[in-house]
Specification:
It is a single chain. The protein is α+β, with helices and mostly antiparallel strands. The strands form 2 sheets. Strands 1, 2, 3, 4, 5, 6 and 7 form a 7-stranded mixed sheet that branches. A 3-stranded antiparallel sheet has the order 8-9-10. It is globular.
Length: about 210
């Protein structure tokens, strides 16, 4: 027999469990800062290799969190693999945000300083890299486009089991898309959204 004390003992925890769709895996990314000889900070971006999914798009270094990793470990591993750096070159400044990714997985983001970076990258994952001065990014105004996710239901969905059937009023998840047009290409998607919130935070903290 299950009693209330057993439930209290088993469920007494100080954290929430995050429900994710089957097969969804968390990811972690880094907003890398680099510093020139005069101390001016720039944000480093990658252009994804044409050999991988979403090839040609602009992104930050990062990837899927392995089952035996913490998100910060993922960031450190991925930046070494993608930008051919050593661990001691990366100084993690701070965690930033968590965002909902595909299948309600978490995307963790960090801000870090990449020291003595010489421009190398893995051709398997990265087509090229470029940087934009942070003070210039802070003056840029992105194009913001509101949108919503909709549910795409199969024909054999059991409509008869829900109130209203096919006329059920499904909730739409709202989302803004942010577009930064640069001479290197358009920064958008999760990268544009993360950049927008980072710059908003940086502008407040640095002003």
């Amino acid at each position: 027999m299950i009693n209330i004390q057993i439930l209290k003992d088993k469920y007494n925890t100080d954290r929430f469990e995050h429900i994710k769709a089957a097969g969804a895996r968390d990811a972690a990314v880094l907003i890398p800062l680099i510093e020139d000889g005069s101390g001016r900070l720039s944000v480093l971006f990658e252009v994804r290799s044409s050999n991988i999914r979403q090839g040609g798009e602009i992104c930050f270094p990062g990837g899927r969190v392995d089952s035996d990793e913490a998100p910060e470990q993922t960031v450190r591993r991925e930046i070494q693999e993608e930008l051919l750096t050593e661990d001691e070159q990366l100084d993690i400044i701070s965690p930033l945000f968590t965002m909902n990714g595909v299948g309600d997985a978490f995307i963790y983001s960090y801000l870090g300083l990449l020291k003595d970076y010489e421009g190398g990258c893995s051709e398997d994952e990265v087509g090229s890299v470029f940087s934009i001065p942070l003070d210039r990014l802070l003056t840029m105004t992105p194009r913001i486009c509101p949108a919503a996710y909709v549910i795409d239901l199969p024909e054999d969905f059991p409509f008869s089991l829900i109130p209203g059937g096919r006329d059920y009023k499904w909730y739409k998840r709202r989302r803004n898309f942010y577009f930064y047009e640069t001479e290197f290409g358009v920064i958008w998607g999760m990268t544009g959204e993360l950049l927008f919130h980072f710059l908003k935070t940086a502008d407040r903290l640095l002003s």
